[in-house]
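Supplementary notes for students who missed Thursday's class. We covered one full example, reproduced here. Read the sequence, then the structure, then the short commentary at the end.
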Amino acid sequence: MTKPADQLSVYPQTLVGDQLLRFLPSADALRTVPATVYAAGVVVAFFLVAAVAPSLLQTHDPFRTDLYATLQSPSLDHFFGTDQSGRDLYSRVVQGTGQSLAIGLGAIGLSIGIALLVGVTAGLAGRRTDAALSRFLDVLLAFPNLFLALLFVAVFGATTTTLIVSVGLGCAPGYARLIRGQFLVVRNSGYVEAARALGHPYGRIVRQHIFPNAMRPLIVMITMGVGQTIVWASSLAFLGLGVAPPSPEWGALLDAGRNYVTVAWWLEVMPGFAIILFALSVTVIGQHLQDRLEGRVNP
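Structure (token representation):
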């Protein structure tokens, strides 16, 4: 006679570690990875090195001014040109990578934390709690995410901490809605219903079945969200509500260069290019992870 535990073996794996193993490709799968994903990985690796050890990639002192070299266009000596103080723009972009990534990671971490608290509660609680939290999320989603961030920065001032909190709060409602929906889907799935029919305690079902399977898309959300939060933080900085110059944070570079855009286009284009390149690269990687997770490519 088949044991109840054996009957559940046909259902999806329930351990978090087992879920994470789905992201580890085999040797055959590596040969089928698109070239764009490899290129995106190289770009992200470059920015990670720039964040951890910027001196390895810098060609000049990013804080050294040279009034004889102000507003020089891109050249072999200055890859991204120089700014209004004669500082090498490429080295400043590299130097600012760590701060920009810290803002992006901090904002997405705060956002996911709030979203988990609200989304898990709404997805696992009773109908009244779910309805109340859903209406609360509807109210927050009625406002543009950037508006919430602008409001927070305008009230508490423009610092790195407030930038992280404001962007994190702005992203949280959307992520909470996604997490809530994922928990509802898993809670009503067939293998969870089978576990209930077999008499498993609800706490065990949540711990071993609902929570691990509902958290599967979290890695994709974090990967794609980092690029999004960096873009939003840079947008706030461009509006004068971010980290103030002379910080080399990417948004601050955009803010500092906007007054010279008619005579030195590279002050806006080069930091903007770095932001777009990083955001696009993490999005490509995140999309590939999502495709693998949903079985659209070989695991």
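Commentary. Residues 1-17 have pLDDT under 50 and may be disordered. The chain is about 70% helix and 0% strand. If anything here is unclear, bring it to office hours.
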